[in-house]
Amino acid sequence: MGSTGTAGAGPETDGERRNGPDAAGVVVLGACAAWPLITAAARNGRPEGMLLAVLAVAAGYAAGRIGGALLPVAAPCAGALAGVGLTVAVPHLAPGPQITAPLGHLGATAAMLALSAGAACCAAWAVSARTVRFALRLLAVGIAVTAAVLGSAAGCFAAAGVLLCSLAAGRVRRRGPGIAFLAVTAAGMAGLTWAVAGGAVPRGFAASLEGRLTAHRVGLWRDALAMVRHHAGLGVGPGRFGELSTTAVRSPLSDGKPHSAPLQLAAEQGVVGVVLLALAFGWLLYALWRSPRATPVVLTAGAALTAVAAVAAVGNALSFTAVSVGAGLLAGLATARPFADDAARCSAPTRRTPPRGDHRPPRGDRALPGAG
């Protein structure tokens, strides 16, 4: 696909592009909401957290589709500013200096700042004026600086990475390979988390990761993997990891979560839960691939969502409703078709060429009856 999206596609093609991802999203999100209810009924679990996350993604996606259609530049810009403001204003998202802060706040901060940077870069690609585009990219730089000021190295790295990916996306003509690369990157991060939990990485590398991630977090991952081995079908039940994990019980600061989205779903909802998580992320990438927006916008949003997936693989970012809403919002903004594009297409003049064989000779050259 070219970087201009589907500007020359007809109405039937546009309808197919819209209906396919939307139908897939309904099925995937419906399954993500139904399966926790099933496992909760079987294991006496608490599915409210998962249901809230699904609702947050769906609500954010719907709001993004509406905002992106009405205000393709202002809506992502407002979303970027709102994300930064929320990160700075809400103390539970910003990493504080106290050492007693629960695990996961650093991950939520990094995820929110990555989404904010992605929204700013999407707005930059949606505007045609170079001055405004440069200003919006400066906003993305400011988001990375804000992360550094807050003390979130992961947030600074994520925001800067999204900005660099957005700049590189301007030189990409086909979005398919880029989307595939993002999918492989997210899968690699999830696989690395699983390998660390199972002790399948070299000792030196494992020791280095354990020093950065803390031994407590790696212990939570190992407890989650042990639960998967014993309860691979239905899991231990949504919301029950904290009461069954020995590492979580021994720690007074634990919030009852393994701080890894793939391992948490595998432990609490079984293998099906991990498959549904992969399908949900795959649906977002599929919607971006079929998006009518320009390729730089699509790949920028995909890079930000992949950064969130990477943070969620080693942290507790998806436990924060603001992160789930932000992810859905950014995906909706990047998959919406602006009404201005439809209006421009409808108002464009069309040239009508007569069918072949229907060319008549000039009036003066017609043969007269009886001539000759």
Automatic annotation (TrEMBL):
Record GO terms (molecular function): ligase activity
Feature: compositional bias, Basic and acidic residues: 355-366
TM spans (from-to): 23-42, 49-67, 73-94, 106-128, 134-167, 179-201, 270-289, 296-314, 320-340
O-antigen ligase-related domain span: 143-277
Keywords, in A-Z order: Ligase, Membrane, Transmembrane, Transmembrane helix
Record localization: Membrane
Membrane topology: Multi-pass membrane protein
GO-annotated cellular components: membrane
InterPro entries xrefs: O-antigen_ligase-rel_domated, WaaL-like
Signal peptide: none
Region of interest (Disordered), residue spans: 1-20, 344-372
Name assigned to this protein: O-antigen ligase
Organism field: Streptomyces griseomycini
Organism taxonomic ancestry: Bacteria, Bacillati, Actinomycetota, Actinomycetes, Kitasatosporales
